[in-house]
Each structure stands twice: as C-alpha cells, then as structure tokens.
Amino acid sequence: MDDQFWTFLTHFHSFCGPILMLVYPLYASVMAMESRSTLDDEQWLAYWIIYSFLSLAEMILQSALEWFPIYYIAKLVFVGWLVLPQFKGAAYIYKRFVRANLRKHKFIKNDHHHHLDSHHSSHNGKSKNKFVQFMTHNKGEYQEY
Length: 145
Hints:
By secondary structure, the protein is mostly helical. The chain contains seven helices and no strands. The protein has helices spanning 2-34, 39-60, 62-65, 71-83, 89-104, 112-123, 126-143. α1 crosses α2, α1 packs parallel to α4 (71-83) and α2 crosses α5.
C-alpha cells in the first residue's frame, strides 16, 4: 500500500505539475495581457517572478531536496495556491514579501508601485492596446520579406 501511494503521488505530480505550474499560468497570462484590466497583470507577473525564484532555488538546492520526498507534493500545493484565482497567492506573496524586501534593500523606491498604479489607471488599458497594435503592425512588415 505504501509503495502504491508514493507511485500514485509521483504520477499525479508528473501529470498535474506541468498543467498547474506552466500550462494554466501561460494561458492566464495571455488572457491577462489581452484584457483591459491591469489587476490580472499584477497577479501573473508576480506568479512568474515567484515561479522563477522557486525554480532557481530548486536548481541550487536540488541535492538537498532529494532528502524530502514530500517536497514536490508540497510544491504542487503551494503553486496551486499561487495560481488559483480564488486565492491570488502570487500577488499576495509579491506585495507582502518581495516588494517589502526590494524596498528594504533600496532596489525600488517606496512610491514606485503607487506611481505605476496611477499611471496604469490613467490610461485605462490604452498602453496594452498600443503594444498589441505595435506588435500587429510590425508583424505585417516582417511578412513582406
């Protein structure tokens, strides 16, 4: 029974891990870029920052993590909390810990995010539309060659 349980967890993680950690966030990020709201942009930018940090930490600590067989299941649960819209964990972690440490070490100014919020709200999504138009316009130019 114990071996079957660990085998099940391994297969579960192998199947659900990439969907939860990459496929869904990729889809949600594209949808956020195409929406007029900037609130969802913050969630998905925060997710990719945290996921990148987690991936780097795993690369560095890989040999130590092998001693904790439940690590990958815990990671799957944690990433689920980060990505599920009911929790918005990535935005929470970013606001609560990442931004605070960046400010503490003077990597960003204390009023930087407030400036970004006022900049985004004044455009009401127009900057996204300009970016999409820019990309669409250039796409046509490249097809001529």
